[in-house]
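the two lines:
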Amino acid sequence: MTSPQLSNYLVSNRKRLALSQKEVAFLLGNKGGAKVSRYERFDREPSLETALALEVIFQRSASELFSGLYQKVEQEVIERAKTLASRTDQGNPKRQIFTNIANKSLN
Amino acid sequence: MNTLHPNEFRVLAIAPVTRGFGFAVLEGQDTLVNWGVKVVSGKGNKNAKILPKAEELITHYQPGVLVLEDASAKGSLRRPRIQRLVPQITKVAKASNVNVTLFSRDQVTKILFPDGQWTKHTLAEVVARQFPEQLGSKLPPKRTAAMREHYQMGIFDAVALALALRLRKTKPDHSEAVH
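prediction for all of em together
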C-alpha cells in the first residue's frame, strides 16, 4: 500500500490548536460540527469560501491544508497544459506558457 | 537515522490500553498528523469492539507501516487480552496490505533512552518534548501509587512506537519482529 499525501490535514491543524469541531464549525458560520467532521473524514470537500475561512482559522495556506487535493488538481492541470502545448504551433508564444505550466512540477 | 523508504512515509501506531487504544499517525520524519484515544465502552468482548475502530484508522490513513507493541515479547507484562489483540490487529492490517512492525517495550525504550534510565512518565515527557505544540498540553500529571494510569497515556505510547520506527538504527535489531 502506498502512502500519498492525505486529501486534507484539517484534523492535525485543529488538534494543534486544541479546537473542537464545534468551535471550528462556529468560526465557519455553521451550526454544528457535522460538516467539519465530514471534511476531516474526506467525505466532503468544502466550498472555496470555507477553504479560505479554514486558511484564516489555521493560518496555513489552502494548498497546505488540502495538500493531497492540491497535488491531484496540480497533476490534472499539468496534463492539460501538456496537451495544449502539443497542440500549439512552435512559433506561438503561448506554447511557452503552456510548457511552463506543464513543467511546474519539475521546478 | 535511516533514510525514509517511500512506503514508510506514513506510519500508524496503535497502543492498546485498558479502555481501548491510543493511536498516532506520523508522516515523514517528524510530522504528527493525528493522535488520540479510541475508547470502547460497555461489557462484552473488548477486542471485538476495538478491531473495527482500528480497521477504520487503517482504511482512512492507508499507512505504509502499522507499528504495534510486541505484547508477547519476553518480559512483556501485557495482559492476555492485549496479547490476543495484537495479532488480531495485525491480521486486519495485512488484509489491507499494510506492513506491520512490532517493537517490544524493551526495544522502544532502548531506542529512546540509550542510557537505560526511563519511567513511563519520562517516556511521555520525551514524546511531549518532541511534539510540544501538539502534545505538550496533554502530558498527564506524574502518577502516584494511588492513581490509575491516565487514559491519554496511550497517545504517548503510540507516538513512542512511531518514533521508535523512525529512530531505529540503520541496521535494525535482529530481534525485532517484522511481519
